[in-house]
Amino acid sequence: MPLPTAILSVSSSSLSFFPLFSYSFSNKPLFGFYSSPTLNPTRPYPNHSIRKLMTTSAVSIQKETIISERPHTFLRETDGQDDGSVRSRFQRMIMDVQESVCGALEALDGAGKFKEDAWTRPGGGGGISRVLQNGAVFEKAGVNISVVYGVMPPEAYRAAKASATDEKLGPVPFFAAGISSVLHPKNPFAPTLHFNYRYFETDAPKDAPGAPRQWWFGGGTDLTPAYIFEEDVKHFHSMQKSACDKFDPSFYPRFKKWCDDYFYIKHRGERRGLGGIFFDDLNDYDQEMLLSFATECANSVVPAYIPIVEKRKDTPFNESNKAWQQLRRGRYVEFNLVYDRGTTFGLKTGGRIESILVSLPLSARWEYDHKPEEGTEEWKLLDACINPKEWI
């Protein structure tokens, strides 16, 4: 779970993901287009097969070109751009959310300003990468959007469309767009936040006119504190539940568990943080409803997170508190480098390193055989990461 590098003839989900980086089908920012089928046992998702196939196929990445001014749109003219399509509206949504989140973060920080890089690539698409570093409140904050066009191998398309098994198909074009962000405050009592929301489509193969288009939504927002303030965690989870309940009361419990399961550091036997919501491959609901749902979730980030940091940013802390924060950041690094498929895919395929690793904190810490004393505030956080709790 980071800014675009680009991918073209892909055969792999790291599609531009910040972990939005720009690769092509990943798992988290764009974001993370990978997820384990065991995470959501309610139904099998053929898209998991696509991603598995794509990880073993040849991948061709085209480097992005930095441009001096951001364009009005990253959509190709053939997409109609501002024609009211799902592609167009999702792109507008992630651009608006990037503006609102960055504006809220700069206002809260008071000193730091986001550096912006806009980029495009020959195969179509592009993105806007924004990073704030060494601010008064935030040590590092990245908020990135990406719009990616690419091509998946025919065997991946067959995996998603059973009726195409015996068809002779050529490469299948795909489209992906998303926003991804990781925010690392300086104060140990202010939590780290990650969120990403994405939309993915495959076009009908050129040699299979009329073939149905495959599409899905994915994303989530999760909280990673070093210390537990129950009122903060309850506020955060209440905001996630509120966003979910507007669309389906089953969403929050389902996606909360999915989040707990996904951000699991297997070699540690603990979660990265205190969870939130996470979902992928959503396409078994009305498309308009899911677009509205993703928009609601993305727009809930500021009210869910900013009040918490506002409350904790000036809390007095000592060297021991800072050391514990850095140890927890070490867990964040371990998850991203070992388990986040967007990150590992980008590293293996030569993606833009600054984009791939932008989610990592400026500083982290590892101590040999560190174990917090039972009953301490540090132990309480670790216990909650080992044994996920119902916060609301």
TrEMBL record:
**Residue ranges of the TM segments:** none
Q: Which UniProt keywords apply?
A: Chlorophyll biosynthesis, Chloroplast, Heme biosynthesis, Oxidoreductase, Plastid, Porphyrin biosynthesis, Transit peptide
**UniProt keyword Transit peptide present:** yes
Name the Pfam families on file.
Coprogen_oxidas
Q: Which GO terms describe its biological process?
A: chlorophyll biosynthetic process; protoporphyrinogen IX biosynthetic process
Its signal peptide is: none
Q: Which reaction does it catalyse?
A: coproporphyrinogen III + O2 + 2 H(+) = protoporphyrinogen IX + 2 CO2 + 2 H2O
Alphabetically, the GO molecular function entries are: coproporphyrinogen oxidase activity
Has the keyword Hydrolase been applied to this entry? Answer: no
Report the pathway entry.
Answer: Porphyrin-containing compound metabolism; protoporphyrin-IX biosynthesis; protoporphyrinogen-IX from coproporphyrinogen-III (O2 route): step 1/1
The GO cellular component terms are: chloroplast stroma
State which Enzyme Commission number(s) the record gives.
Answer: 1.3.3.3
Quaternary assembly: Homodimer.
Which family is this sequence assigned to?
Answer: Belongs to the aerobic coproporphyrinogen-III oxidase family.
Protein name (Swiss-Prot/TrEMBL) = coproporphyrinogen oxidase
**Gene name linked to the record:** LOC111305633
